[in-house]
Design a protein that fits this description.
Blueprint lengths: L1 H25 L4 E3 L10 E5 L3 E6 L4 E5 L8 H27 L10 H38 L9 E3 L1 H22 L27
Antiparallel strand pairs: 1-2, 1-5, 2-3, 3-4
Helix pairs in contact: 1-2, 1-3, 1-4, 2-3, 3-4
Length: 211
Amino acid sequence: MASGGLQLLGFVLAFLGWIGIIISTAMPQWKMASYAGDNIVTAQALYEGLWMSCAMQSTGQIQCKVYDSLLKLEGNLQATRALMVAAILLGLVAVFVAVTGMKCMKCMEDDQVKKMRMAVLGGVIFIIAGLAALVATSWYGNRVARAFYDPFTPVNTRFEFGSALFIGWAAASLAMLGGAFLCCSCPRRETSYPPTRGYPKNAPSTGKDYV
């Protein structure tokens, strides 16, 4: 029962992490315009994401523009996109594989060993998906930080970390933690054999019949 509870906890954490990765990928707040230092605070906030850039007015109105051409984007941004999409697809595969191996599911009940292996495989895929998202968000955040501290970057074009990065970091951590729980939830296979029962030996014949 304890391993089943750990398995369920791992799946819930990994699933929440996968949902967070999707939300982070879709959000446009990967970096936001910085108003630190001598920057003049304007009446709008500027955001940039993987798919679009947005400007939010002081009235609360948001205007977004999708990037026109994929080929005109920076290679780093394209790589970040690819890693996040790969993390989403891997997470989708991990969900189906892990559900198949869950002890509370009826499928593959006739072979518990394969069922356990499916749960472990789902956990491994969740860990890989979390690592892909972690690499993508950390790589993007490192570029933002380097550009911010670069003295040659104009003050009015500096950006800071957006909320999507923090959600991505938290989601990647949840996916890897849940995947680790899935990998550790299955006990080792122990093969037990019933004790051998000896057959009674026939008493030696004495050649005498008793009535």
